[in-house]
Design a protein that fits this description.
Phosphatase 2c, domain 1, alpha+beta, two-stranded antiparallel sheet
Length: 116
């Protein structure tokens, strides 16, 4: 089977990335749980998503973004041909959803603590 490859445009340069060369590694360090997440997925022909999410001291936000970002990118890809606009709208949507999600969790947790 032939090795699939993707062309990546980086500034004025074109990089060719072979799928056989794509991998990941993540170390939890001294933490009990690894808070990092990643996605490597072909979204469309000639469009691959490489995403790295760093937990920064907690996995709630990174897990939420990891679970939601792909669907938003796919939605906006159907709405516009501008990849810049797709990313801008996706990041805005997911950020707003994450803010609400974390606010709700914080409120929910504080309400539980009131009863104890």
């Amino acid at each position: 089977m032939p090795v699939k490859h993707f062309k990546l445009l980086v500034s004025r340069f074109t990089l060719i990335v072979h799928t056989a060369d794509v991998g990941s590694a993540s170390l939890p360090g001294k933490r009990k749980e690894n808070e990092d997440r990643f996605i490597v997925k072909e979204l469309q022909e000639n469009l691959v998503m490489f995403a790295i999410f760093d937990g920064h001291g907690g996995s709630k936000a990174v897990e939420f973004v990891h679970q939601n970002i792909e669907n938003h990118i796919r939605y906006w890809l159907k709405q516009t041909d501008s990849l810049r606009e797709v990313l801008r709208k996706t990041f805005t949507d997911v950020n707003n959803m994450l803010s609400k999600h974390l606010a709700f969790q914080g409120k929910h947790v504080s309400n539980i603590h009131r009863y104890f």
